[in-house]
Description:
Layout: E1 6-11, H1 20-34, E2 38-42, E3 44-45, E4 56-59, E5 62-66, E6 69-70, H2 75-83, H3 86-95, E7 102-106, H4 110-122, E8 126-131, H5 141-156, E9 164-167, H6 170-175, E10 182-184, E11 207-212, H7 223-233, E12 240-245, H8 249-256, E13 269-271, H9 277-285, E14 289-292, H10 298-302, H11 306-314, E15 318-320, E16 336-338, H12 344-355, H13 359-371, H14 381-391
Amino acid sequence: xxxxxxxxxxxxxxxxxxxxxxxxxxxxxxxxxxxxxxxxxxxxxxxxxxxxxxxxxxxxxxxxxxxxxxxxxxxxxxxxxxxxxxxxxxxxxxxxxxxxxxxxxxxxxxxxxxxxxxxxxxxxxxxxxxxxxxxxxxxxxxxxxxxxxxxxxxxxxxxxxxxxxxxxxxxxxxxxxxxxxxxxxxxxxxxxxxxxxxxxxxxxxxxxxxxxxxxxxxxxxxxxxxxxxxxxxxxxxxxxxxxxxxxxxxxxxxxxxxxxxxxxxxxxxxxxxxxxxxxxxxxxxxxxxxxxxxxxxxxxxxxxxxxxxxxxxxxxxxxxxxxxxxxxxxxxxxxxxxxxxxxxxxxxxxxxxxxxxxxxxxxxxxxxxxxxxxxxxxxxxxxxxxxxxxxxx
Length: 393
């Protein structure tokens, strides 16, 4: 095994836990750490609380060295962010004294990735691409053209030229199956971290459902479909509440083009806006089910839902439809229920079954979720070790 190597992780993640990307890179960094590597990060920050004088931080037992860039908001800042390599080069050559053996690029923009590929080849640095998404261009025509070109170049050409690929889903693994060195890692967590500690759960007469995330306008999560179904089945289930963390009611109305919550469930749906990751995790733990539905599009096929991993790790079963390779993990009645969303009637029947489940059965399923270890990063240690060793063979 290769020892005493330094790794630089770069990308649009906001440490320590302000987006799903941050959760992924921290877990992957722990994998690197167990193999004897020291990890450094170049992420982004979006708030004024970042203190540039603090060079070393500790999160979940991992000491990390971070030099984030301010998140680009203006067009000029964004253009610089997706094309400039000076910031990375400065960190490698000055801060780290050129002592970097591997750079991991997380969903890195195409032009920057192309420059990074040339830089790594010139300086004998191994380059790994961590690929978790296949973006669909949004915005005005200019941004759609730029984003579309960036996505095509990155996904179809540049990722096939790096030294190794970390993919998040079966779809991406199959797409890059001709690559010589590839490993598929779902979103991972450290099960030994205190935030995943089990809570004393006691079911009550009300079924507590929770949605956590940013559904956008429905491209990713069909939150509106869930609310509509709950309205239709209200008279056929036991009492329920749906708690929504991540957006406000006003944002939901704007994003999904609706004006009201159905009257018969207006007292059962609670929008609580954004909350810290820690608070959201505690809310999930105390819920009966975590729920989300995803459309069958490229974005969802190529990705893998972090919210699924986090809910199971909390000990809370999931209600969701088939997307990505989620059926590899979700077995009916074990970690939750697979929801058939092909028609309104089938969706309603699926939700009725789950909500009306026996309390003792729900306790049993929650225990199975909590004991499930396939998302613990250490479960991939041997496979990951082989992947890294292949870089240097």
